[in-house]
Task: inverse folding
């Protein structure tokens, strides 16, 4: 399976840090955010990825190159006009070769089990499967409501409930989830994305209105969005304290190599 990492945004809330550097290249634990995403992909056997670019995209290309130093094969999708999460994915349509694909937000860092996410998607036969997580601020992020079978019933309150629902469509109103920015999409989703700039969340809401199947995958493990200076500082501390399992594995591997060369 191929992957796409969304990395075109301006990172305005992180200024002045992002005045001269794109947000996905900010360092966490001595590595750029994008590199953590590449490491996560590779850990789960995904070695081909496309990165969309707009703001200071040349710096991302210069930093990552063809991806070979990370054991990856990287391609890039340049956006002269920023297209958003929906338009950016749609522009990259030919890269996915009419096959299911994975999308990650380039400004998040996590231990999401991509293997389990992909298997959930394959089993569910959904148009898209979204990694979701419990969070006390889920309503602020835009709540994702699931049915008893983890089928997505609502996103951000849409579509509104109308009349009695059958058992499979009843949502768990006690547990709002938030979208973690990691999702698996079928090629058919690309056909539902309107031309031009737009959000993939708006596309998902429209698919729900049409009764199309979308699945939620409740993820566990570490996750952080690097959207503000406060969250950036918190993520840096979390990684230094060993809360990111991916970082601990890398540290253990490096220690083993060091020990073997003594």
Result:
């Amino acid at each position: 399976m191929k992957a796409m990492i969304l990395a075109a945004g301006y990172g305005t809330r992180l200024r002045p840090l992002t005045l001269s550097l794109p947000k996905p290249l900010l360092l966490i634990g001595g590595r750029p955010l994008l590199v953590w995403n590449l490491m996560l992909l590779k850990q789960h056997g995904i070695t081909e990825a496309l990165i969309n670019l707009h703001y200071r995209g040349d710096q991302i290309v210069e930093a990552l190159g063809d991806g070979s130093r990370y054991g990856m094969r990287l391609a890039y999708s340049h956006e002269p006009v920023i297209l958003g999460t929906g338009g950016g994915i749609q522009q990259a349509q030919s890269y996915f070769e009419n096959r299911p694909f994975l999308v990650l937000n380039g400004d998040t860092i996590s231990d999401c089990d991509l293997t389990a996410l992909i298997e959930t998607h394959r089993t569910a036969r959904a148009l898209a499967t979204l990694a979701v997580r419990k969070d006390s601020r889920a309503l602020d992020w835009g709540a994702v409501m699931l049915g008893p079978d983890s089928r997505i019933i609502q996103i951000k309150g849409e579509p509104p409930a109308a009349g009695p629902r059958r058992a499979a469509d009843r949502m768990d109103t006690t547990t709002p989830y938030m979208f973690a920015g990691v999702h698996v999409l079928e090629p058919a989703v690309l056909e539902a994305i309107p031309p031009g700039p737009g959000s993939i969340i708006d596309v998902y809401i429209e698919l729900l209105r049409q009764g199309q199947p979308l699945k939620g995958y409740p993820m566990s493990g570490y996750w952080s969005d690097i959207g503000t200076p406060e969250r950036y500082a918190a993520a840096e501390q979390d990684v230094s304290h060993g809360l990111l399992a991916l970082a601990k594995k890398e540290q253990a591997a490096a220690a083993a190599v060091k020990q073997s060369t003594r």
In short: The domain at 2-130+179-260 is CATH 3.90.550.10 (Spore Coat Polysaccharide Biosynthesis Protein SpsA; Chain A). The radius of gyration is 18 Å. The longest helix spans residues 245-260. Residues 83 and 113 are 28 Å apart (CA to CA).
